[in-house]
Amino acid sequence: MPGKASESTVHGLDNGGATTQALGSRPAKNGQWSESSLRVLRERYLVRDGTGILETPEGMCWRVAVAIAKAEAQWGKTEAEARQVAESFYEMMVEGKFLPNSPTMMNAGKDNGLQYSACFVLPVEDSMEGIFEAVKRAAIIHQSGGGTGFAFSRLRPKDTLVKSTSGKASGPISFLRVFNAATEAVKQGGTRRGANMGILRVDHPDILEFIDCKLDGGITNFNISVAATETFMHALEKDEEYALIDPHTKLVTGHLQAREVFQRIVQAAWRTGDPGMVFIDRINASPANPIPQDEVIEATNPCGEQPLGPNDACNLGSVNLARFYLPSIPAEVRATERIDWVELERVVRAAVRFLDDVIDVNPYPLQDITEEVGKNRRIGLGVMGWADLLLELGIPYDSDEAVTLGEEIMGFIRRIGHDASEKLAEARGPFPRWSRSIYKGERPIRNSTVTTIAPTGTISIIVGCSSGIEPIFAVAFRHIVGDRHLTFVNPIFEDVAKRRGFYSEELMRRVAERGSVHGLEGVPEDVQRVFVTAHEIEPASHVRMQSAFQKQTDNGVSKTINLPNSATPEDIARAYMLAYELDCLGITVFRDGCKDTQVLHIGTGAQPAVSEAEEAEPATSRLTPHALPSPEDRLKVKPRPRTVKGVTYRAETPLGTAFVTVNQNGEGEPFEVFASVGKAGSDTSAVSEAIGRLISLVLRLPSPMSPRERVEQIVNQLAGIGGRRQMGFGKDRVRSLPDAIAQVLAEHIGLSEPGVQEMLAARGTPALSGAEGASVKVGDMCPDCGLATLVYEEGCQKCYSCGFSEC
Fold it and tell me: CA 147, CA 149: separation in Å to the nearest integer?
C-alpha cells in the first residue's frame, strides 16, 4: 500500500550522506512510496553498510539532487542559487514527476567512482587487439552500471583469409559469443547483469548465421538486431536480390534474395523474440545523428532506442505523465484540458537542466567516452506512465484518440525540451560540434539530442506507474506466498469500479484470476474497452503508438510489440513492415512464450505408433512388457532410435503454457518425455528440460517394471508438488510445473483422476480440490523473487513483484 517510508525500514542519514552537506539539509517535502518501490529502493538504490540501510528514499532524492546541482558552480551560480536548483531537482523526483536513469540514482553522490549513464556504444575494430579492447571496455562499463551496444559489421566474414597469420577469420558471430561470455562473468555494479545489443548489417556475408545465432539459446546476454539498409528494404519491396559486401575488402561476395532473408528474420523472431530490426540508413538521416559530417551511426544501446556513435553515451531520464492528470476536471471536458500543461512544462525544463548537469559531473569510465560525450552532449528525456494517463482519461490504448494524444504530448515535450536546451546554450554555449551539425542554421542548442523514449524498468516501479509508453500488462494478478493470498489490482481500475458502483471483493478476485477484464461479466463494456492489456492489443496498434511518439522524438523509441502465443510469423512480418512504413527507427517483437521448438502434435487422440527403426526390427526380438532383460542388457540404457512418434499435450501451469511431448516405443508404451515452457534460455525452460530428461532416462533404463508402471511411479512422485503459485480449481488445479507434467502423464496412460487422488492420499499429500487461491500466469519466473511476474517489455525483462530488471 502507498505510504511514507517508516523509521522501521531505514535508520539514519535522511540527508543522503556527507556529500550533501554543502547545500544543507533536505527540503521538508516527503514522497509517497508503495511496498514495491520501497523493496526496490532498499535492495538497489539506498546507501547502506554492513549494519543496514543508511538512507531514506527522500535522502536518496536529495543526495542525487545535490550531486547533480554541483555542476551549477561551473556557470557562476552561488551556493544559494545552486541550492535552489537542487531543491527543484529534489521536488520533481520526490513527487514522482521525473526520475533519471538508474545508474544516476544508484551512484550520484555516493563517491564510489561509478558513472551515471545507462547507454554506451563501443566500436569493434577488425583486429584481434580491437576486438578484445572492446571486451575489456565493455566489462568496465558493465561494472559501473551501464549497458553497451556493438556493431559487429566491421569484422571480416567467417573463413576469409587473414594475411598476417595465414589463418582463417572466425567471423563476427564467434566473437559475439566471446562478448556474451565476458558479460556473464561481470556483475553489473553489484546490482544487475550487463545488458548488450549486437548489430550486424544486413549486407554482411555472415548475416544468415547472425539471424539464427540465438536459436540454440546460448547467447543470453544480448539483444540482437539486423541493421536493415534502404537498399535491402527497396529490394524487399520489389522482391529482388541484394548484394553482400565484405567489410574488409569492400567487394561484393554474393547476393541473397531479400524476401528469403526477411522471412528468416521473421521466423527467428517468432521463435525467440530476436532479431529485431533497426533501419540504419533512416537513423543516419534523422535527428538521431545530429552530426552526419563527423560520424556514421552503426549501433544502438541494449534496448534499441538510443543510436550512438562509437564511444558515445547518453544520459536518460523520464517524465511520469500520470502525475499531470487533473482529476478535478469533469470527464466530459476534452482530454487535452484535463492535463496540467503548465506543470508539465516546468518539469520538462527542470529535467533538461538536470540531464545537462549530469554530463559535467559524471565520472565517465573511459577517457575516449568523456571526450566524445563532451563534444555532443546528448541527453534523452522520455516518458513513463503513458498507459496510466490514458486509463485516467478513459481513452483506450488502441484507439485513434490515444495515438493523436501521444503525438501531441510528445510534441509538446520535444518543443519545450528544445527551447530549454536553447536557453541553456545562451548561458553555457552550444555543444562543441553545433557548427557542424544539422542545427547550425538555427538557434544554438546545448544538447545535440534532447528526447528519447527509454525503458523505465525499475524507475517506473519506484514512482508507481506503467512502463514507458507500453500498455498495462495485466489489470490484476494474484500471488500465493505460503498461506498468504495476495491480490494486486490496478489502482485506477479499483477506483473506477468503486466510483461506477460495480466494485466487489469477489469481482476483484475474478479479475486477478484472469489478469484481464475482457468479456468479464459485471464489468461495463466501456470499462472493458479502456482497460485493455498488452496481449489484447493488435500488433498494428502497438506499432502505430510507437510511430506517434517517434515522430516527436530526436532519438529512438523503446517499445516492445507484444504478441500473443498464437501469433503467426505473418503477424510478425506485418508488424516489421508497418514499422518501416510508419517511419519508426526500429522494431522489437516478443511473442508470449516463444521458444526454440515448435509443437509437433496437439491433442490426446493419437494412437500408439511404431518407430521406423522398430518397424525394421523383427517382432520376435522385442522384449515383452514384463520380460526381464539379459544380464548384459541390465547395464545398458536403451538407445534412442533415429525416429520415434508420439503426441504433444498443451498444459497451463503457474509458469506459463507447457508443451509436454510423450514419445512411444514399438509397443505403444512411453519411451521418452520432452517438456517445454518459457522462452529458450530462461531458467524456467532449463528446469522443464531437466525434468523431461530425467523422466526419459528413467523410462529407458533397464527395469523389471513395465514402462507404464514406471510412469505410474513418476506420477506418484511428481503429482501434488506445490510451488509458490498455483492455478485452476478442483480436478483442473495445477500446483506447479512438476504437478502439470504428472497430470499429463497420468492422462496419457489413462490413469483416472481418482487414481491420482489415491496416490496423493497414500503419500499424505492434500488432494486436488477447489480451494481458493488460484492464480493466472502474468509472466516468466523471476530470478530474484521466484514469482511468475517477470514480463518482457521495452526490450527488457522486468518483474512486477520485486522490481528486478535487466535494464
Answer: 7
- Convert the pLDDT of each residue in 84-100 to its tens digit: 999 999 999 999 999 99
For residues 781-801, one letter each, b for 16 or more C-beta atoms within 10 angstroms of the residue's C-beta and e for the rest, the string is bbbebbbbbbbbbbbbbbbbb
CA distance 391 to 376: 38
What does the pLDDT average to over 320-326? 98
Does 59 reside within a domain?
yes
Specify which of 166-180, 620-634, 726-740 reaches the highest per-range mean pLDDT: 166-180
Check whether the bond before 704 is cis (ω within 30° of 0): no
Asked if residue 135 and residue 241 are part of one domain, the reply reads: yes
Is-catalytic flag, 303? Answer: yes
Confidence of residue 690 (pLDDT cuts 50, 70, 90): confident
Residues 86 and 131 in one domain: no
Residue type, 391: L
Peptide bond into 471 cis (omega under 30): no
How far apart CA 156 and CA 137 sit, in angstroms, is 21
Q: What does the pLDDT average to over 230-234?
A: 98
Does residue 134 share a domain with residue 90?
Answer: no
Residues in Cβ contact with 411 at an 8 Å cutoff, skipping those fewer than 6 apart: 551, 552
51 or 700, greater pLDDT: 51
Residue (of 754, 727, 748, 755) closest to 655 by Cα position = 727
Check whether residue 148 and residue 293 sit in a common domain.
yes
**Domain enclosing residue 218, as ranges:** 119-307
The x, y and z cell numbers of residue 86, run together, are 537542487
pLDDT over 60 (residue 721): yes
How many structural domains compose the chain?
A: 4
Tell me the pLDDT band of 279, cut-offs 50, 70 and 90: very high
Q: Is residue 786 part of a domain?
A: no
For 272, the grid coordinates are: 525467440
Work out the pLDDT band at 21, boundaries 50, 70, 90. low
pLDDT for 580 equals 98
Residues 6 or more apart whose CB falls under 8 angstroms from that of 624 comprise: none
Give the count of alpha carbons within 13 A of 436, CB side only. Answer: 9
- Asked whether the beta carbons of 800 and 791 are under 8 A apart, the reply is yes
- Give 592-609 as a DSSP string: TT--SS--S--SS-PPP-
81 labelled catalytic = no
- Does the structure show a pLDDT above 70 at 238? yes
* Identity of the highest mean pLDDT range in 56-60, 474-478, 533-537, 691-695: 56-60
Three-class secondary structure of residue 148 per DSSP: strand
CB neighbours (10 Å) of residue 383?
26
**Do 130 and 183 share a domain, yes or no?**
yes
| CA 580 to mean position of chain CA atoms | 22
Is 50 in the same domain as 176? Answer: no
Grid coordinates representing 175 are 566473437
The answer to the question of residue 229 being in a domain is yes
Q: Which one from 91, 305, 712, 794 is the annotated catalytic residue?
A: 305
User: What is the tens place of the pLDDT at every residue in 369-403?
Assistant: 999 999 999 999 999 999 999 999 999 999 999 99
What one-character-per-residue DSSP string does 63-88 give? Answer: HHHHHHHGGGGGGT--HHHHHHHHHH
6 and 91 belong to one structural domain: yes
Provide the pairing of β-strand 196-201 with 147-151.
parallel
Alpha carbon distance, N-terminus to C-terminus of the chain: 25
Asked whether residue 285 falls in the same domain as residue 197, the answer is yes
Statement: residue 618 has pLDDT above 50: no
Residue type, 792: Y
Beta strands in 641-746 (DSSP E): 645-653, 656-664, 670-676
DSSP string computed for 776-801: ---SB--TTT--S-EEEETTEEEETT
Q: Mean of the per-residue pLDDT values for the chain? A: 85
- Residue with the bigger pLDDT between 620 and 269: it is 269
CA 662 to chain CA centroid, Å, is 33
Amino acid at 694: L
pTM value is: 0.79
Q: What number is the average pLDDT over the span 559-565?
A: 89
